[in-house]
């Protein structure tokens, strides 16, 4: 069973997919969206669901450090609910606190240039979200 991991931002959605055994996450792309028009991403997400035979989507939930959910977290929950309804697929939220910072550290330690980091940071954050979920299932 493959799982799709999403790091939902205001302008991009980082996408990662699990292997068929559900052990590892690989980044596959960053979907660009304009002006927080999340519905623009649905056709591409459906293509990825079909292409990879995805059965579940894990959406990163950006909680505040004290555990509360702010406006960005509420937007992610709304997005996940819409994906579940419109694409008819199981979705769940996954605490993504610090996933983008962890992705940034990995890219810095790999000596990736600032310009290249900007292009892959969302995809890498999606990998961190999905891998955290997959590890919790082991």
Automatic annotation (TrEMBL):
<keyword id="KW-0540">Nuclease</keyword>
<dbReference type="InterPro" id="IPR005227">
    <property type="entry name" value="YqgF"/>
</dbReference>
<protein>
    <recommendedName>
        <fullName>Putative pre-16S rRNA nuclease</fullName>
        <ecNumber>3.1.-.-</ecNumber>
    </recommendedName>
</protein>
<dbReference type="Pfam" id="PF03652">
    <property type="entry name" value="RuvX"/>
</dbReference>
<keyword id="KW-0963">Cytoplasm</keyword>
<dbReference type="InterPro" id="IPR012337">
    <property type="entry name" value="RNaseH-like_sf"/>
</dbReference>
<keyword id="KW-0378">Hydrolase</keyword>
<comment type="similarity">
    <text>Belongs to the YqgF HJR family.</text>
</comment>
<dbReference type="GO" id="GO:0005829">
    <property type="term" value="C:cytosol"/>
</dbReference>
<keyword id="KW-0690">Ribosome biogenesis</keyword>
<dbReference type="GO" id="GO:0004518">
    <property type="term" value="F:nuclease activity"/>
</dbReference>
<dbReference type="InterPro" id="IPR037027">
    <property type="entry name" value="YqgF/RNaseH-like_dom_sf"/>
</dbReference>
<feature type="domain" description="YqgF/RNase H-like">
    <location>
        <begin position="1"/>
        <end position="103"/>
    </location>
</feature>
<dbReference type="InterPro" id="IPR006641">
    <property type="entry name" value="YqgF/RNaseH-like_dom"/>
</dbReference>
<dbReference type="GO" id="GO:0016788">
    <property type="term" value="F:hydrolase activity, acting on ester bonds"/>
</dbReference>
<comment type="function">
    <text>Could be a nuclease involved in processing of the 5'-end of pre-16S rRNA.</text>
</comment>
<dbReference type="GO" id="GO:0000967">
    <property type="term" value="P:rRNA 5'-end processing"/>
</dbReference>
């Amino acid at each position: 069973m493959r799982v799709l991991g999403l790091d939902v931002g205001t302008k991009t959605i980082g996408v990662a997919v699990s292997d068929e055994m559900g052990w590892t996450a690989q980044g596959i792309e960053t979907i660009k969206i304009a002006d927080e028009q999340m519905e623009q991403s649905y056709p591409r997400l459906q293509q990825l669901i079909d292409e990879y035979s995805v059965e579940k989507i894990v959406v990163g939930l950006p909680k505040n450090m004290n555990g509360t959910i702010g406006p960005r977290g509420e937007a992610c929950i709304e997005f996940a609910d819409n994906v579940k309804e419109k694409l008819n697929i199981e979705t769940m939220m996954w605490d993504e606190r610090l996933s983008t910072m962890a992705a940034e550290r990995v890219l810095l330690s790999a000596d990736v240039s600032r310009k290249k980091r900007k292009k892959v940071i969302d995809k890498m954050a999606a990998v961190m979200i999905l891998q955290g979920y997959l590890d919790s299932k082991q």
